[in-house]
Structure formats: structure tokens, C-alpha cells
Amino acid sequence: MAATEGTRTRRRSRLDRREARAALLFLLPGFIGMVLFLVMPIVASVALSFTNWKLLGTPEFVGISNYVRLFTADPQFWPVLRNTLFFTAEYLVLNVVISLGLAVWISSLKMGQRWFRVIFFLPTFTPGIAAAIVWMLIFAPGGFFDFVMQSMSVAIPSMLTDQTLAMQAVVIVSIWAGVGYNTVLFNAALDMVPQTYLEAARIDGATAWDRFWKIRLPLISPVLFFGTVMTAITSLQVFDQIYVMTRGGPGNATATLGYAIYQRGFQNFQMGYASAIAWVMFAMIMALTAVQFWLQRKWVHYDN
Fold first, then answer.
1. Residues of 28-39 as b/e, b for ≥16 C-beta within 10 angstroms?
2. d(CA 197, CA 211)
3. 135, 90, 75: which is closest to 260 by C-alpha?
4. Using an 8 Å Cβ cutoff, are 45 and 279 in contact?
5. What is the Cα–Cα distance from 108 to 155, expressed in whole angstroms?
6. Spatial separation of the C-alpha atoms in residues 258 and 239, rounded to whole Å
7. CA-closest candidate to residue 223, choices 109, 303, 110
8. Are the CB atoms for 254 and 163 separated by under 8 Å?
9. Closest CA to 234 of 127, 91, 33
10. Please, which residues have CB within 8 angstroms of residue 255's CB and are 6 or more apart in sequence?
């Protein structure tokens, strides 16, 4: 009996080793890809941020000089940072509010919910560069937007050439392209709210606003929190719309950290300095995410 049990144990051990080797074999391509395209670029970016590498030649170690220059000697950094924070704040609020409003409206429909989900989600499939090119033609001087404003006898400067309105044009394009994802996400969460809760509140005399504010919104708060975090991360990295529509202009009105990284790295060939900017942006993303996770304790309700 003992010999039989020992044999079974050895067979099980050999089987476990075979399964482990098979699992490693299947995981190996993904692991190699992660190392080559994620881990190594991250490590290289950290190393480059402490050099003055100009894309050609050998990198020269300069310590924290890039970071010191960024915060003390670069007159464009603070306006770029201000533009980034302004865009993030406006886009985040508008995206969440509009998508939540659309999600509530779609969930109230008796017919056609699927079609409206598809309609609002379609722009997310459009490549960002292609969408930005189309909107650039719409907002260009003498374009469709100017024609509409003139036909309505509304005097308004050209969106892309006015320092005040250029960022608003970028926000409009970003909202058009990105609001559909959160709309579908929030609508799915609203559809999962138990109808029994809403019916009980209606019987107790709760108004539609009370049912939304006190029942539906708290129940979908985890999904709302997820959408808010992801939208904030995306907005801090905005690049495509600015690259195509304004190139950071007019002047420096729409330059953001993402565009500054491209400009310093691939136009001025200051890869070390661009890497430093990239890590400052990464630190901002982590800080904003940490603040959001800290604040979630005050308004996110998990159903235990």
C-alpha cells in the first residue's frame, strides 16, 4: 500500500512539473513581449532622464540637471503644465457629466437603447488622428464652423487661431471622441440597478431626482469611480488632437506635457530632457490617481 501511494505521489509530481513547464512555455511569448516593449523602455527612459542624449551620439550622464532645468530654467514648462491641468479638469468634468447624462437618458428609453449605445460608442473606434483632421477642417478659418456662425450672425473668432478658443476646440474634439466609452459603461451600470429598489422608493413617494441621487448614483459609484480614474489618466496624456489641430499654438496656448515630450524629443532631439518631462507627467498621473483613490472613501459605495 505504501509503495502504491509513493508511486502515485511521484506520478503527480511529474505531472505537476509537466504542467508547470507547459504553462511557462505558453507564458514565455507574452513575458518576452512585456520585457522588450514595457520593462526595457521604462528602464531606458529612467536612465535617459539623467543624460543629455541628443538622439545621435553617446548619452552623457548629467545627474538631475534635466529636472532642475525643467522646474527652474525652462520658461515654457509652467505654461505647459497649466495648459495640461486646465485641459484635464475641463475635459474630465465635461466627459463624466455628459456621459452620465446620456447614460441616464438612454436607460429611460423604452425602445432603441441598443442603437443609441452604438451611435454614441462609434466615435471611440475612429482613429484619433483621422478624427482630429476632420475637426481641424471644420474649425479651420473659413471652414464649416465659421460658415455656421456667420449664417447665424454670430461674431466669433476662428477657433484654431484664437488663443482663448483654441483649447476649447481641442476639448470639443476630445469630448466627441471619448464620451461614448463612459456613456456605454455608465449605462450598463444603470441597467444593473435592481428595479425592486426603485419601485420601493417610488411607492414611498420618492421623486425621480431622489431615486437617481439617493439610489441609482450610489449603486453605480464604483463604475463611476473607474470611469473617472481612466478618463483622468487619458486626459493627462492628450497628444493626437493637439499635434494635428494646433501644434501647440497659437503661441503656446494649447501645448501640453504630451506635446512637449514630442517637441523636445523628436523635434529638438533632446531625448534626455524629453524623458524627464515624461517622468514628471507619470508622477502627476500617479499623484492624481492616488488622490482619487483617497477621495473614493467619501463617495464610492461598495455593495458588500
1. eeeeeeeeeeee
2. 9
3. 75
4. yes
5. 38
6. 5
7. 303
8. no
9. 91
10. 76, 79, 80, 83, 242, 248, 249, 263
pLDDT on residue 4: 63
Residue listed under C-alpha cell 461598495:
302
Answer yes or no: are the C-beta atoms of 70 and 280 closer than 8 Å. Answer: yes
User: Cell triple for residue 288?
Assistant: 492624481
Predicted confidence at residue 226, as pLDDT, reads 94
- The pTM (predicted TM-score) of the whole model is 0.88
Q: If we measure between CA atoms, which residue out of 201, 219, 220, 221 comes closest to residue 210?
A: 201
Low-confidence ranges of the chain (pLDDT < 70): 1-10, 303-304
Cell numbers describing residue 18: 509537466
Residues contacting residue 60 through CB under 8 Å, at least 6 positions apart:
51, 52, 53
Q: C-alpha cell of 41?
A: 523602455
Query: pLDDT tens digit string along 56-83?
Result: 788 899 999 999 999 998 999 999 999 9
